[in-house]
Write a structure and sequence with these properties.
CATH class: Mainly Beta
Radius of gyration: 18 Å
CATH superfamily: YVTN repeat-like/Quinoprotein amine dehydrogenase
Shape: globular
Structural class: mainly beta
Number of helices: 0
Distance between the termini: 26 Å
Strand content: 35-45%
Strand order of the largest sheet: 3-2-1-24
CATH architecture: 7 Propeller
Length: 312
């Protein structure tokens, strides 16, 4: 499978599509960026209408809106309905949270510190359902962290260094688990998260992009939290240096070697960087993007399980 990328451009109020070549590189955009709401900060990709073609959901934090873009399967997208937003949407994730076979949305509302669940109707429209307890920060990711076959959520908390795991009940509601990551993980300035089995043990792990604001050592990096299979995670000594101010992080097998790679969006420098796992000749290439990329989404099926070791 050749993987593509969708990039949200904050200053340009648009989304750019990068079509993958299958070797870790991407073709330049073949069409103009798609216009969305003001200040897009997060996006997620999935089939919202059940036609077998990928669509996009975009969170716009400046005008507090959500945009749904339906795809005909050729790399282009058309805006349709706008689901209701209950605050400033800053994080976005998709999954079938109530088991009805239709994709739903989870939205992190940065200003009111909540997570909103929007249940999908299967035609590209969504309706509010519940608000799990979490002081939502900018990063939100979905995955089955306790292996019960029900989708869970990982949410960074605004104002502290905590990470909350919300275990899914399978009906669209969630319950927080306490002490998910111990006390030694500093996540105050989290910019993005990606879920995947990074050590090949069959349990879902987390990669977290951290903005380092220390003036003497202003280097941004990714840390890995290894899943225990019960909804809790353990910190590791692994860290991976990142390009300037990563505004988003996704994981996927971009070069088709069966190993998970990373892609990050650099807000101030207007490019997307691909970091290949144990590449033959160093890091993957950068790709110039429109103004201020703030979020990435990789098409579903990108997360294969393989031990994760990056050259850095």
């Amino acid at each position: 499978m050749t993987l593509d990328l969708a990039v949200a451009n904050y200053d340009d109020n648009s989304v750019t599509i990068l079509l993958g070549k299958g070797d870790g590189t991407f073709m330049p955009p073949s069409s103009s960026p798609v216009s969305v709401g003001a200040g897009p900060t997060a996006l997620a990709m999935g089939d919202f209408t059940g036609d077998g073609k990928l669509d996009l959901a975009v969170a716009n934090s400046t005008d507090n809106t959500l945009t749904i873009l339906l795809g005909p399967g050729d790399g282009t997208f058309t805006p349709v309905s706008s689901p209701p937003a209950t605050g400033t949407p800053f994080g976005l994730a998709i999954g079938d949270f109530n088991g009805d076979g239709k994709l739903d949305l989870a939205v992190a509302n940065f200003d009111v510190n909540t997570v909103t669940i929007l249940l999908g109707s299967g035609d590209g429209t969504f309706a509010p359902a519940s608000s799990p307890p979490a002081t939502a920060g900018p990063a939100l990711v979905v995955g089955d962290f306790n292996g019960d076959g029900k989708l869970d959520l990982a949410v960074t908390n605004r104002g502290n260094s905590a990470l909350t795991i919300l275990l899914g009940n399978g009906d669209g509601t969630f319950a927080p688990i306490t002490g998910c990551c111990g006390t030694s993980v500093e996540l105050t300035h989290t910019l993005g998260m990606a879920a995947g089995d990074f050590n090949g043990d069959g349990k879902l792990d987390l990669a977290v992009a951290i903005l380092n604001i220390q003036p003497m050592f202003p280097v941004d990096y990714v840390i890995i939290l290894l899943g225990k299979g019960d909804g809790t995670l353990a910190p590791t000594d692994f860290s991976l240096l990142l390009p300037d101010q990563p505004a988003s992080l996704v994981a996927g097998d971009f070069d088709g070697d069966g190993k998970l790679d990373f892609a990050t969006a650099s807000d101030p420098n207007n490019y997307v960087s691909v970091l290949l796992q144990i590449p033959p000749s160093g890091p993957g290439p950068d790709f110039a993007i429109a103004a201020s990329p703030t979020s990435l989404s990789v098409q579903p099926g990108a997360q294969r399980r393989a031990p994760c070791r990056f050259r850095h």
